[in-house]
Amino acid sequence: MRVLHIITGLGVGGAENMLDRLLGALDSTQVTNHVIALKQSGPIGDAIAARGIPVEVMGLDDFMPRTLMPFRLARRIARIKPDIIQTWLYHADLIGAIAARLANPFGASVPVAWGVRQSVVNPALLKPATWRVIRAAAVASRYLPQRIVVNASASIASHAALGYDSSKFILIPNGFDCDRFQPDSTARAHLRQKLGISANTILVGLAGRFDPHKDYPGFIAAAHAISLQQGGQSPDIAFMACGEGVEPGNPAIAALLAQYETAPKMHFLGRQSEMPAFWSALDIAVSASVGEGFSNSIGEAMACAVPCIVTDVGDSARVVADCGCVIPPGQPQALARAIRELAVWPAEKRKSLGQNARRRIQDKYSLTQAADSFLNLWAGMLNQKAN
Q1: Cβ distance 8 to 116 under 8 Å?
Q2: pLDDT digits (tens, 9 = 90+) for 248-285
């Protein structure tokens, strides 16, 4: 089976990471993969290419008008001759499906499965061009894709409300490699020593690119609220975060910190390539997102046996279940209270909760399960085409 994956870009992000993990999990004797990025490559593109999988970059926004992109992409589809096209993210969904039709205008087009990764669609947090693409895709969903893959059940209702064809949705949750993501006491000690954080300090962390959906202002506000109450019998609590743009040199982060007379103890590490070490260093992981389908960071942290505090967006509450804490989105004080509550737990009680979280990922959200679900989806689409 030849599968062409079309994705908006190959920088660091949830969809990009899931694509990379999926390609590593698929049996190369069953599936031959090819990847096209509409915009640019990046670290994930390099990782995929290192697997020996062809990666092409179209250069959308750099030198190619959007109106020409489907035609050029159609020529590449005709050359690659895939059996299935799997798209990832809104721009790739729409442009990829149009190109698939153009690639064979007088015959049956290649079956296309879209990949929707957002749960709550808030136009105020989106670029105007992205919002226009989403609205166009809602109409096109009735005609272009055979199936629409979502990684969170919450995405189905929100996109059906926008006009997406609800009969085409299929839920395939994110999957995680629990051999790679597991507790590592050596990495924990090394990173803490590097940052000057003692073994007894409760370390709270968040991972995600600097983006409005991740609500870094809320995370920093919660950290500040906790820092004002430290001292006496309170445990020592420190904070760290990582991701694209999450670094002290980012003027937006500097502006957020400048709001407070006393800045909280926070370490901004930028993009990290060794995420198991990041998670292993933590005592508590946080997802403060105001809009998310299925956060990769939650699954990774849980696989590393770190208890999570998550906002009730997308499927975060479903994933964490009774292995963490769920709070409303956009409420820094609620986040601060939840952090304080977990921080005063005995270490063994937090450790037990983290171990339960790891078992939940192993049982419900393994990478093998996700890969099998995609294979079954594609096989079903081929059978439907044949009939």
Answers
A1: no
A2: 899 999 999 999 988 788 999 999 989 999 999 999 99
pTM of the shown model: 0.84
The answer to whether residues 291 and 382 belong to one domain is no
Using an 8 Å Cβ cutoff, are 387 and 108 in contact? no
Claim to verify: residue 209 and residue 269 sit in the same structural domain = yes
Contact at 8 Å (CB) between 51 and 69?
no
Measure the CA–CA gap between 121 and 156, rounded to whole angstroms: 11
pLDDT of residue 106: 66
180 lies in some domain:
no
Range of the domain at 301: 185-364
Q: Which distant-in-sequence residues (6+ apart) come within 8 Å of 266 by Cβ? A: 220, 223, 238, 239, 240, 241, 257
The residue whose two tokens read 């990782």 is 47
How far apart, in whole angstroms, are the C-alpha atoms of residue 377 and residue 387?
Answer: 16
Structure token pair of residue 382: 């081929």
CATH number, domain with residue 272 = 3.40.50.2000
Q: State the amino acid at position 349 in one-letter form.
A: K
Who contacts 344 (Cβ-Cβ below 8 Å, separation ≥6)?
Answer: 234, 235
